[in-house]
What we know:
By secondary structure, the chain is an alpha+beta fold. Helices cover 20% and strands 28% of the residues. Strands 10-9-14-7-8-13-11-12 form an 8-stranded antiparallel sheet, with no helix packed on it. It is globular and about 75 Å long.
Amino acid sequence: MDHGKTTLVDAMLRQSGTFRENEALTERVMDSNELERERGITILAKNTAVFYTGVKINIVDTPGHSDFGGEVERALKMVDGVMLLVDASEGPLPQTRYVLSKALEASLQPIVVINKIDRPDARPQEVLNEIYDLFIDLDAKEEQLDFPVLYTNAKAGTASTHQGGNGEDLRPLFDAIVETIPAPSGDANGPLQILVANLDYSDYLGRLAIARVFSGTMRTGEEVAIAKRDGSFQKTKITKLFSFSGLKRTDITETELGDIVAVAGVEGITIGETITNAESPAPLPHIAIDEPTIAMLFTINTSPFCGREGNYVTSRNLRERLEKELLTNVSLRTEETGSTDSFKVLGRGELQLSILIEMMRREGFELMVGKPEIVTKHIDGKLMEPVEHLTVDIPEEYIGVVMEQLGARKGEVKNMHNHGYGRVRIEFRVPSRGLIGLRSQVLTATRGTIVMNSLFDGYTEWQGDIPHRPTGALIADRGGLSTSHALYNLQERSTWCARRNSPTCALPLPTRPFAWCRTASSTWSRPSSLSPRTSLSRSPPNHCACGKRACS
Length: 552
């Protein structure tokens, strides 16, 4: 969902004096990943810092999608409060519920920001009421319900404390942060406790651990202990320390309580480990991460196209890349499959795994992936499957077709609300496997007008078989170049991935390629002169391989 979090951080960086007035900047400067810019979403949690009236404010920009929940869970360990950003028209969505529930569980103090108040369909008062309902539904504490509310236009860089007010800048937002978010707790002279919540890499310094200082003070050159996940301790020496200022790292010689720092020179350190005193270690609890719900099989590329585009094609390359991903992506898991050429990768959802696949493709990896499968478990002897809370926003005329699609996938309607401007919001409870392949179907059925978001909602008993797609696939039986007359009469029967003169791993024809044809006056039949291995591309133009000009 795009409610404007990264755009608002852009405005905060500009107005805090982080950049020069004449400095050329790109939009969504925090979205440094190429895929983030293309899709317009935040995938990786990133931190920055601004200064306001002598106070340093560390900001962590987190994803808004539950598929990247691992980023959210570890980011919440680094902060003392949260700024909940909600669209003035769309209101709270399932992803809003997910992020807010994690923040409330961590007892963090919230600030509510209703963004995009300049939208013509903005309904700030109704959205605020929905936010209060959401807080109450998530069992927020009484002090958490007493949150300040600001109305912003992130693109224009303005904020106001009143619904009808036209702010001039973001000073009301900065004031609310300083007044509402508590100062860091802990003792600067106490035992050293620094929790690693992210990793980065420098060509000059190697692996960098990005961590939050919860207690004590650490200095450059000091010998410390790393509390590993298995309970052991690894002694090491700190060679370099950095603090954050805007988008830059600045050298420091010692840490400050509550600050977010980058630590260099620590080999083998991973997310969730604690940097503590070497003599009297006091490790912090590890970061708790929710279990994955979707699994896919990653295999080396054995198709006829193998080695044509990528540089990394072996199982060793695939294994090393997945192991590298596990270092920074704490919500992913991998399992061995009994074969050295394939790996089972488990994640939070289709979006998370599709992002990983696309990143690997751009890095030059060649691989094959299997169909997404759900991760089941047995509870009290019963087979349980993950279930999702699905919210769809559609025009009124498409209610019937969406109900039909989700009914076949074991979806149950939980709530329906008509906003009164031609669109209806419907909430379903549907098994996770019922969502696999759903998006493309409902986008087609609603002519691209549907907006849908889902959220993991626990486990339920196995719901029985869910029907798969009613259509098959047209494939080919050998490699070669596709031709116009081979594709012409087949293009009405399917959606094609091949074009004229494009290489195919096999020339596309239905069922048993090159074994059947049809004339204008007859049904499908097998020509007596055509062998199953005859190549259609060798036929004269406008002729079928059977030699009949009228054959289609």
